[in-house]
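Q: Convert this sequence to structure tokens.
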Amino acid sequence: MKKPPIIALGVFDGVHRGHREIFRQVAARAEAAGGTSVVYTFDPHPVTVLAPSSAPKMINTVRQRVELIEACGIGKVVVQKFTKAFSQQTPEQFFRRVIVQKLKARELFAGYNFTFGVKRSGTSETLEALGRASGVRVHIVRPFLWKGTLVSSTQARQFIAAGDLARAEDLLARPYFIEGKVVRGRGIGGKELGIHTANLAPENDAILPTGVYVTYAVIGKKRLKSVTNIGPNPTFGAGPVTVETHVLEGFKRNILGRRLRVEFLQKIREEIRFATAADLAAQIRSDIKTAERFFSSRK
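A:
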């Protein structure tokens, strides 16, 4: 890199408000120093490699993470493949090989709880000491509070898993979303209910509980009001959990095979088994009215 790199270290899953504050500081320092703002992140999550049974479900795929980070004004994102061999480096080896030799960092930003090196033996204090010894200026970013809540990926995951989408959106500074391709479904919505849906094959980890949600369906540059069901469609017999989105605005294009993003705004109800298809259709029409009221009241 020709310009001096100003680097942020971390996983940054969710790219929440706390992460965005780090990126803001990195971008500001890069501009002031005539440098390049860089995020150095890891994939998969280190816990996935070191303790798979304890690994968190990720809010974003790595592609989504990179996209969100770049949208925060970061000039370059470096994704490090995290392996067991990589994890065996001592903190000193990591700092010398990665920070000094590979990235040629001028300055470094990391969260207060950042750990690195074999058995997570390197802490923020270790990072500062290694920086002083190597002439790399290290900034440790303090905990970030938003409306009295400590902002963290763990807290955002908990809100999402509880279906508390308004609080998750507040921490993420955007709606929680999933993405994938539209695939053929069981054909129940159109044939049995007269309500057409797009069936999504999600790329994201399954975090949200089953249920019916007010959503936006994002197709290309179009962001359309919609209702989304997550669940096994128990009215028609137990099946696999599916994600089905019904667009409210008369969208009739065939989008089979297209990429679809679904942004989740509010949970309407749990998914339940109905006695008949007609009862389910009546409930879906009621769900649609609930969604329409939500959108009319949303600023």
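The radius of gyration is 22 Å.
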